[in-house]
Amino acid sequence: MISEDIRSDILRRLNATEVEHGVRILFAIESGSRAWGFASPNSDYDVRFIYMHEPSWYQSVDLEERRDVIEYAIVDDIDINGWDVRKALRLYWKSNPAFVEWIQSPITYLDKSVFRSAALNMLTSIYSPEKGIYHYRSMAKTNYRGYLREPVVPLKKYFYVLRPLLAARWVLKTGNAAPIEFEKLLSLLSEEPLVLAEVHKLLEKKRNTLELGRSAAVPVLNDFIETELNDEPSEVPKKSRSPQVIGLLNELFHNVLRENNANK
Predict the structure, then answer these.
(1) What residues contact 23, with CB distance under 8 A and at least 6 apart?
(2) Are strands 78-84 and 45-52 parallel, antiparallel or unpaired?
(3) pLDDT tens-digit profile of 28-62?
(4) Rounded distance, CA 146 to CA 137, Å?
(5) pTM of the full predicted structure?
(6) Which of 39, 83, 174, 175 has the most CB within a 10 Å radius?
């Protein structure tokens, strides 16, 4: 899925990031369409990583004012940026959808810490189905209203509506975080063969065309989307989180700090 040349270039840039910023990258993954499974041949590489500073960096009066992201301009279709580990854990506490997807990515560039596996093991305890459903349905609604209600539409936008809609359906059905791979979500359409057939047609085009252009809207998909958006869940699964959750996140943070000292 990722060529060796591209992977080597990404690893070189990640190593340079550690040197430039004096940080240690805990893990780095691919997000976006390549991780979701519907990339075009010329899609960007969306590299995301979690990093940490030396432990003393976090023992500062001005900690809240310190920058906690590292971002680079896109060069040669490679988009790289990352979050500090403390920022990541604070957002994870709030079921941040980006972080929840990053730890589940099927494409890994670096993984040299206990951090990712430990965070993934906590997912069931931490994840809020209510927040997840709200996020995915809002994303689907915004993209649908913004791009797909005209006679001629940008075809690739169907994926940016269908994926969150199916993810919301998954969370509603299971009460757990949805997988990020689109193919896994398509299992939810097993009883809607006409919709599934149209999705597969679009997938084939998306994966083999440099850029899906504008074309006539697909009535079967629009009808499905409209029905799904209008079908507001009557009961959203709610999970009462244990007060121990923040303790688990603090413990993971401290473990990573100790790990950093041990690896010197």
Answers:
(1) 17, 51, 52, 53, 70
(2) parallel
(3) 999 999 999 999 989 999 999 999 999 999 999 99
(4) 14
(5) 0.94
(6) 83
